[in-house]
Design a protein that fits this description.
Blueprint (H helix, E strand, L loop, with lengths): L2 H96 L5 H32 L5 E4 H19 L2 E3 L5 E4 L1 H17 L8 E9 L2 E8 L31 H11 L3 E6 L5 E8 L10
Parallel strand pairs: 2-4
Antiparallel strand pairs: 1-3, 4-5, 5-7, 6-7
Helix pairs in contact: 1-2, 2-5, 3-4, 4-5
The protein binds adenosine-5'-triphosphate and magnesium ion (MG).
Adenosine-5'-triphosphate binds next to helix 4 and helix 5.
Length: 296
């Protein structure tokens, strides 16, 4: 090997050494970057775990306080019924036995006592219905919506007759649900459709339903007074009413019961409307049993 060959080899070796060093430095830099990214990722995972734990704790709190509130509503409503029964019974006895001992004004006052007690009785019953949606729910079985509506119409007969209301439905599908709760839902929606009407107009309510993918989509359409856009979400909140009791009677619990029933079925309820153009209530229900909330 000549001297120039050796020099050539040495230069090649040096170049290779320099290239290796550069590669090693690059590797070190990449490793550092990877380490930093790993650290950031670990911190992010930790942060998320903490947030998830906090969320789970909040959900537990919420479920507990919901349960307590439900229990309170049930006990309060239930225990209020006994004294109320006394007020109703004794004011009836007073009216029957002692009416002669009272002047016209006294009898009028007694009438107010009975009316007040009766309306409180209605309110308490509605509150009990609301608190029982979760605690006294029935089994989910295959329900023919036509039959559910026939049963609802039987209950509503006395209410619908004076209004000459026309309620139309036919050929509706079947789905898995709690039939008594579905009936209660339709009773509330049809009763509202007939109640919130322009005076003198014949109420017409049309109920349609169709299966769509895994959902049953139900619509309850009326030709009533309609609802302003800004109130569309609020009406499902308990005691939320858009009119005075003198304009349209009611306590504002009906739609809260509907929403609770739909929640228990794992579905959704909402409404489209415009003042003076009627309302269309939409319901989407899973066609088969939901995973949760099957029994009481
Ligand atoms: N079909 C409808 N057309 C127009 N407004 C409606 C209709 N349904 C409900 N609303 C409005 O939503 C409010 C809440 O309805 P919800 O059924 O909860 O109460 P309510 O009928 O007043 O009382 P309750 O049902 O307890 O007797 C009603 O007071 C009314 O203002
Ligand atoms: Mg109502």
């Amino acid at each position: 090997m000549s001297v120039s060959d050796i020099e050539l080899l040495q230069r090649k070796l040096e170049r290779e050494r320099a290239a290796r060093k550069q590669a090693e430095q690059l590797l070190e830099q990449k490793s550092r970057e990877l380490f930093q990214r790993n650290e950031a990722l670990r911190e992010e995972v930790q942060r998320r775990e903490l947030t998830e734990a906090a969320l789970a704790a909040k959900a537990d709190d919420l479920a507990r306080s919901n349960g307590e509130l439900q229990q309170f509503a049930y006990v309060a409503s239930h225990d209020l019924q006994a004294p109320l029964r006394n007020i109703v019974s004794f004011s009836r006895i007073l009216t029957e036995r002692y009416a002669g001992a009272l002047d016209a004004e006294g009898q009028e006052f007694l009438g107010f006592v009975r009316e007040g007690a009766m309306s409180m009785h209605g309110l308490i019953n509605d509150l009990l219905d609301l608190s029982r949606v979760e605690t006294r729910g029935g089994q989910f079985v295959q329900c023919d919506l036509n039959r559910v509506l026939d049963d609802a119409m039987e209950v509503l007969e006395l209410e619908l007759e004076p209004a000459r209301a026309r309620v139309e439905y036919s050929g509706l599908p079947s789905l898995q649900a709690d039939p008594l709760q579905l009936q209660k839902l339709f009773e509330n929606l049809i009763s509202n459709a007939v109640k919130f009407q322009t005076a003198g107009q014949q109420p017409v309510v049309r109920i349609t339903a169709r299966m769509e993918a895994h959902e049953c989509r139900i619509e309850v359409l009326d030709n009533g007074i309609g609802i302003e856009a800004r109130h569309l979400d609020q009406i499902f909140v308990i005691f939320r009413r858009l009119h005075t009791v003198d304009e349209y009677p009611g306590t504002g619990i009906g739609l809260a019961i509907c929403r609770k029933i739909i929640d228990r079925h794992g579905g959704r309820i909402w409404v489209d409307s415009e003042p003076g153009r009627g309302s269309r209530f939409h319901i989407a229900l899973p066609a088969t049993r939901p995973e949760v909330g099957l029994t009481a």
